[in-house]
Amino acid sequence: xxxxxxxxxxxxxxxxxxxxxxxxxxxxxxxxxxxxxxxxxxxxxxxxxxxxxxxxxxxxxxxxxxxxxxxxxxxxxxxxxxxxxxxxxxxxxxxxxxxxxxxxxxxxxxxxxxxxxxxxxxxxxxxxxxxxxxxxxxxxxxxxxxxxxxxxxxxxxxxxxxxxxxxxxxxxxxxxxxxxxxxxxxxxxxxxxxxxxxxxxxxxxxxxxxxxxxxxxxxxxxxxxxxxxxxxxxxxxxxxxxxxxxxxxxxxxxxxxxxx
Length: 260
Prior knowledge:
The protein is mainly alpha-helical. The protein has helices at about 5-15, 20-25, 30-40, 45-60, 65-75, 75-90, 95-105, 105-120, 125-130, 135-145, 155-185, 195-205, 210-225, 235-260.
């Protein structure tokens, strides 16, 4: 291959595909709308879970302002369910807060992986992104950024915030609606099972590898072993033990594959 042909091949490989070219040509407003539309399928999961949180929160004894406070200030389904469960067991506030933070530690990893794409954003934009960073907005945005690495910073931000509008605003509405519906449910309808089943539905699809299963089993065993500790403390202690076991199994699995 000649020098000219080699240079032409490199240039061709660097050229964006027609789909990428269409994405790159979008204005920030168009990127915002694109992000909003892309997040719509997530509503099939977010709305039912938000409504369920409202129902469970009502059963726990929270009022509407408190439910809205959870939905707006916490804005994290797993942490909200964890906190409500512990509050229902009259757990000390410091344990509730620590447990909710532990459940959402994955957001720190999400944030770190977003730095190469939006690290040059202003402090205000970063703060707002951190607030609306949830599983759905992260998954949608990082996939879009990797598929279109030439996007400008303003296009990336607009797409992310568009996804956040679609995912986060309906979540708050769903929580309030669930609380309202929960008040209409007769007290004779026991809903104590709702929270454990919710967590099972959230966790079960994630158990895809031996490390996941080992971590889940460890958390169950440790939670039972620590059940005699003050309310909520056992779960808080079980979490890091389970994560450590999961990491160890993952490392062991990788080494075994490498040696095969």
